[in-house]
Design goal:
SGNH hydrolase-type esterase domain-containing protein, five-stranded parallel beta sheet, globular, hydrolase activity, acting on ester bonds, alpha/beta, 7 strands, Rossmann fold, about 350 residues, two-stranded parallel ribbon, GDSL_lipolytic_enzyme, single chain, about 45% helix
Length: about 350
């Protein structure tokens, strides 16, 4: 990141913090479940090829350190935690460099490549969602040992729970392999995933969670990887993927509405990512970007994980000029804008 762009991002962050830290928020911790959009490095400790613990990933992170985050720097959940005045990063649960001293203020159980569907995680050889929940139960026990039962229960009750996944279920499972598509129409598969999301929220609620934000799907058809598939159509967004994302998001919003009525004391919100990312992709210059259709790393059209590496000569010099870092994942600057949007729209319910 050159000096000018680094200063510009720092000024954005400072402005954001000034707006929100002054608001008293009884949120002592941020607890995260999901996929690569929120994985802080758990996959570093999983036997999978879905990793990003090598350069150029993390080249704009603290000490230019690749952490396993699928970004050139921090991800949206890091910025949310910082904006709430908690800490500037949320550590990965499986990272041995951290312990309960760190995890009291926030932890990520997310695993890149996973989804709602257990088959998705099996295909990618990553942590399934049910296992993320088992890690959370283990974390609860450790928390009670560390803080004592009463204080631990208070922290867990007041913590903010963030859930972000679903894209891999469609792009790396349903549309990539014939198993689910042979037995489910796209509408049936959407409903299948919605049922899992509903049950997962109920499981969290039964374990004491009350402040929960669940993200919808992004405009999947506008990810650089998918636009590359439409090469002969002019690299336009694949609208059938975007249509599925919008359909799924509407169903997820209905789940949020119903569970708020059914579960006493819950404060459950839907966090939109579709519209803000669509706006950024369609109008990159209005958000301070120069490139919206491809990523910074390598050619930016199909590379991610091991295909995005420091040996590739095509990687851009300034990632914050790009909406995307690799062919799927946003750049640090985009992650910041998404986090800012989430706090200003959905997360205000908790402030």
């Amino acid at each position: 990141m050159d000096r000018i762009n680094a200063i510009q991002l720092l000024l954005l962050v400072c402005r954001f913090l000034a707006q929100w830290i002054i608001i008293h928020a009884e949120i002592p911790s941020v607890i995260v479940f999901g996929d690569s959009s929120v994985d802080a490095g758990n996959n570093n400790f999983v036997d999978t090829i879905v990793k990003s613990n090598f350069q150029p990933y993390g080249r704009d992170f603290y000490d230019r350190r690749p952490t396993g985050r699928f970004s050139n720097g921090r991800i949206a959940t890091d910025f949310i935690s910082e904006a709430l005045g908690i800490r500037s990063i949320i550590p990965a649960y499986l990272d041995p460099r951290y312990n309960m001293v760190d995890f009291v203020k926030g932890v990520s159980f997310a695993s890149a490549g996973t989804g709602y569907d257990n088959l998705t995680s099996a295909i990618m050889s990553v942590i399934p969602l049910w296992k993320e929940l088992e890690y959370y139960k283990e974390y609860q026990k450790k928390m009670r040992t560390y803080l004592g039962a009463e204080q631990a229960s208070k922290v867990l009750l007041e913590a903010l729970y963030l859930i972000s996944l679903g894209t891999n279920d469609f792009l790396e499972n349903y549309y990539a392999f014939p198993l689910r598509s042979a037995t489910h129409s796209i509408e049936q598969y959407e409903n299948f995933l919605i049922g899992i999301s509903r049950n997962f929220i109920i499981d969290l609620y039964n374990l004491g969670a009350r402040k929960i934000a669940i993200s919808g799907l992004p405009p999947m058809g506008c990810l650089p990887l998918q636009r590359t598939e439409s090469f002969f159509l002019g690299k336009i967004c694949i609208q059938r993927y975007n249509r599925v994302a919008r359909e799924f998001n509407l169903k997820l919003q209905q789940v949020v509405l119903k569970l708020n009525q059914e579960l006493g004391g819950i404060r459950l919100v839907y966090s939109d990512i579709y519209n803000i990312l669509s706006d950024i992709i369609k109008n990159p210059r209005s958000f301070g970007f120069e490139v919206g259709e491809r990523g910074c790393c390598a050619t930016g059209r199909y590379e991610m994980s091991y295909m995005c590496n420091k040996l590739n000569p095509f990687t851009c010099n300034i990632a914050n000029k790009y909406v995307f870092w690799d062919s799927i994942h946003p750049s640090e600057k985009t992650n910041f804008i998404v986090a800012e949007h989430a706090i200003k729209t959905s997360l205000t319910a908790f402030l």
